[in-house]
Amino acid sequence: MLLGSVEAGGTKFVCAVGNEDYRIMEKTQFPTTDPATTIQKTIEFFQKFDDLAALSVASFGPIELKKNNPNYGYITDTPKSQWSHTDLIGPLKKALNVPVYFTTDVNGSAFGEYVTAQLFNEKISSLVYYTVGTGVGGGAVLNGKILQGFGHPEMGHTFVKRHPDDLDFAGICPFHKDCLEGLVSGPTFDARLGIAGKDVPHEHHVWDIMAYYVAQAAIQQTMILRPDNIVFGGGVISEDFLAKVRVHFKQLLNDYVTVPDLDKYITMPRVKENGSATLGNFALAYKVQSE
Amino acid sequence: MLLGSVEAGGTKFVCAVGNEDYRIMEKTQFPTTDPATTIQKTIEFFQKFDDLAALSVASFGPIELKKNNPNYGYITDTPKSQWSHTDLIGPLKKALNVPVYFTTDVNGSAFGEYVTAQLFNEKISSLVYYTVGTGVGGGAVLNGKILQGFGHPEMGHTFVKRHPDDLDFAGICPFHKDCLEGLVSGPTFDARLGIAGKDVPHEHHVWDIMAYYVAQAAIQQTMILRPDNIVFGGGVISEDFLAKVRVHFKQLLNDYVTVPDLDKYITMPRVKENGSATLGNFALAYKVQSE
Known about the structure:
The structure is a homodimer of 291-residue chains. Chain A starts with a strand and ends with a helix. With 291 residues, chain A is α/β, with parallel strands linked by helices. In chain A, helix 3 packs across helix 9. In chain A, strands 3-2-1-4-7 form a 5-stranded mixed β-sheet, sandwiched between helices. Chain A folds into 2 domains: 2-103, ATPase, nucleotide binding domain (Nucleotidyltransferase, domain 5), CATH 3.30.420; 121-267, ATPase, nucleotide binding domain (Nucleotidyltransferase, domain 5). Chain A is built from 9 helices and 12 strands. Chain A binds chain B through residues 62, 125-126, 138, 140, 142, 147-162, 175-176, 178, 216, 219-221, 223-228, 252, 254-260, and chain B through 62, 125-126, 138, 140, 142, 147-162, 175-176, 178, 216, 219-221, 223-228, 252, 254-260.
């Protein structure tokens, strides 16, 4: 049996086919251009595999996930040019004629991390995955199920208290200015310092300011979901940076509630090279074909 | 069949017995003194009812809810004098010999609100309940289940961005200073203004400042859990106050995600006179006796 994974990102699409052991058999990627071309390329990749059993798509958003909504399977009101109100799942289902699971990019990653934790016999029953990159997003798996309510979470858009050395920065979120995304997404380096994040030395104080905010995101999850693990991925995150996050987290939490050992609680992704979503998609495709 | 409810508060215990329709048959309350006396009074109230089928206890905390923990059923490291590391559930189970459900006070209220919504045929599958009173706490019900992770939520202890007219107030949380509880719990009126909340006129600007913070709590829930309804109870809350909260919420959200109509999304408790927890307890006691 073959399982398909689509990571539908705003910049690129990554398509992969794997087996029941979630091992990648073939993989391709191409830039996200207009919807028709991009979806057609996706279809052509998967059409090569006769025994594709199911597909899972982890997409940039916002997306419609309520199955009783006529726009189920759509990317909805995204600011991304041409993609607003695009039916992503309909054409894939029609052309490939297999069951298709649909979720957000970060939900796919969260599920991949959760499944990997289970494979490694870790005692993880709930897990949050944040990406801190061009934007900030988060998804959660609670007792094996992806967290989903009135819509999908948008965990990057909560507010935090300001670092005393960062009071003058307005924040760059077009909707909320100084929400988490507006304070710690990758482009904030350029907005604060006039240089790209990759060129900011590790000892620069801005890293400490950003760690203070990311630690508050971890506090929010700790107080609301009480997960067993909070995973941070994305271009801004490194082991070095998470070490700073843990220091702030410990100070902010002030031993108010019990949490797992911080080195195991606030972590980099288990799956390397941004592979969490692909693995999550394989597991979700497996689930959807067995339902 | 009779069902028992204990609301174990830091100030008073409220004990009630109800029928399968969750109607209160008899109710009593007494001050929370030392554990032995208070627990004994609780036992004596319920011993009067021969056909008590089960009991549910919604307690102040922190409490231990993990059933495989040797301290399950305990109030753990509370600052409340004499109550630290008190076995609350053990003595009740032993004396009354019925199944006992144990949860937090706000979880009990959240469950009561959820059950009431179902009885009224509201389309509510997830709901958050905050109490804003002496302290701030929150619980959630997701698809009929109380949210519980590595421990129970402590939703009152997340951080928020400061109102520009409130930058000099340090906050009063003994653990976190300016977390939500440290900025909006009842005693903050006295800390900010030197007068009790009940004596602060409705037109005072401090209400607007507090509404700004409570709105951010609602934003956190909206971005993380995406619930169908956020209920606010407790001494600080009034319809007048929630009207202010909705105004700030709308501005802060800035239409970023879809939410239900705000008058139905951010609401006072359905069950009047602080009765949510009693009703929730009856429903939880019913559940635990049928398991």
